[in-house]
Amino acid sequence: MKYLISLDGSQQSHKAFELAESLYKPGDHIHIVTISKPKESIEKGEELLEKYEELCQERGMKNERIVLKSQDVGVGLEQAIRDYNIDILILGTRGMNTLKKVFINSVSDYAMNNIAACDVIVAK
């Protein structure tokens, strides 16, 4: 099984990592990804993924880290899913209330409604 875990440094994305860890079985492969906007430095993303790569190694989980540049996180995730033949996307949710969701499209909503190439699990 190939998992793609979207990480942004938030507690919710860490919960996504923990969920992936609980699902992981020998032979599975974890792809840890962070997405930067085109004009942002990728250094913060690299540092974040180094931390999670170390966690994967400590826990014996095969992994690969991916830093992508994309103006739209949802579109970037879709591209990674296609490029790496991902079976399951796991991501966290911001925990936005209904009013905020009306004004701000969340990545988890986008993934649940628009990504058809794999299963999507949202960790709360």
Automatic annotation (TrEMBL):
Segments forming domain UspA: 4-124
Name this protein carries in UniProt: UspA domain-containing protein
Pfam families in the record: Usp (PF00582)
PANTHER family per record: USP DOMAIN-CONTAINING PROTEIN (PTHR46989), USPA DOMAIN-CONTAINING PROTEIN (PTHR46989:SF3)
Species assigned in the record: Dictyostelium purpureum (Slime mold)
InterPro entries associated with the record: Rossmann-like_a/b/a_fold, UspA
